[in-house]
């Protein structure tokens, strides 16, 4: 109990620190982007300048993605829980999910025609799906299959009615000594500039907020399955979580 409390205080402090830095850094990025637009309008046709401006634009876009991830991690963004139909939501982001994949990676959806409604923040939900599918892609450098499934399940542990959403890949798998760390913020095995280690911590935060659970099963050389369980809307578990405070640190 003591350890859990210390751990949660540590995470709160880390959240406040990163949130503060990300917030200020975001403001700086907006100034850079603003001036860049002015520069673009008045720079003429010099191809060297055009390349330089493009490189700055690319870097500021990456910076914006990173600061957004940091803000989500630090929970400085407002969340708006609403009733969501999981199958419909997954179908509606199919194009976004597909667009992040290379030619050698096939995306398959296996969605029950009708799933129970859940209570979740739609944009956080979409981000979580994108994060999971991007990880699946990165685990399949030689190509492969990523399957997203959604169905209703009745569970004993955790007990209750849930909608189960799985993202399954045929990738490299996760080593046993690494699997316990993958949800830790800033843990990444990807090269600098590619991984931030914030994808799965966003997934974990989102699922926790919605009163659900997330589990991972993986086998080296075979692939990985990450499964999210979200409680059916209206059940006690979903209600309790919905009434929890949504922003835990700062107001940005
Ligand atoms: P990032 O993608 O920036 O590294 P994440 O938090 O999303 O951050 O993931 C943390 C780490 O978990 C990854 O660097 C990778 O080592 C591992 N991981 C996550 N998903 C998968 C997957 N589907 N297959 C293999 N490894 C994975």
Automatic annotation (TrEMBL):
User: Boundaries of each Histidine kinase domain copy?
Assistant: 20-234
The residue ranges crossing the membrane are none
* UniProt name for this protein: histidine kinase
Q: Which organism is it from?
A: Pseudolabrys taiwanensis
Interval of the full protein contained in this chain: 270 to 521 of 634
């Amino acid at each position: 109990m003591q350890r859990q409390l210390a751990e949660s205080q540590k995470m709160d402090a880390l959240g406040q620190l990163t949130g503060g830095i990300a917030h200020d850094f975001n403001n700086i990025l907006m100034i850079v982007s603003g001036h860049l637009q002015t520069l673009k309008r008045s720079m003429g046709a010099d191809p060297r300048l055009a390349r330089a401006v493009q490189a700055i634009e690319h870097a500021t876009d990456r910076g914006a993605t990173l600061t957004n991830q940091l803000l989500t991690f630090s929970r400085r963004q407002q969340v708006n829980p609403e009733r969501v139909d999981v199958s419909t939501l997954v179908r509606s982001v199919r194009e976004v999910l597909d667009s992040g994949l290379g030619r050698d990676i096939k995306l398959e959806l296996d969605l029950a025609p009708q799933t129970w409604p859940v209570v979740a923040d739609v944009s956080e939900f979409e981000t979580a799906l994108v994060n999971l599918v991007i990880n699946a892609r990165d685990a399949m450098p030689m190509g492969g299959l990523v399957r997203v499934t959604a169905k209703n399940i009745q569970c004993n542990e955790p007990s209750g009615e849930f909608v189960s959403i799985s993202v399954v890949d045929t990738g490299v798998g996760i080593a046993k000594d690494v699997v316990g760390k993958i949800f830790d913020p800033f843990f990444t095995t990807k090269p600098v500039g590619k991984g931030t280690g914030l994808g799965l911590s966003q997934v974990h935060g989102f699922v926790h907020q919605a009163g659900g659970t997330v589990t991972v099963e993986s086998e080296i050389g075979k692939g990985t399955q990450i499964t999210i369980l979200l409680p059916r809307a209206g059940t006690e578990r979903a209600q309790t979580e919905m009434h929890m405070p949504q922003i835990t640190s700062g107001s940005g």
